[in-house]
Amino acid sequence: MRKNSIKNTRINGEVQRVLAQTIRGEIKDPRISPFTSVVAVEVAPDLKSCKAWISVLGDEQARKATYEGLRSAEGFIRSRLAREVNLRNTPAITFIMDQSIEYGVNMSRKIDDVMADDRARQRDAGEAGAEGEPGCGAGE
Question: What is the pTM (predicted TM-score) of this model?
Answer without folding.
Answer: 0.69
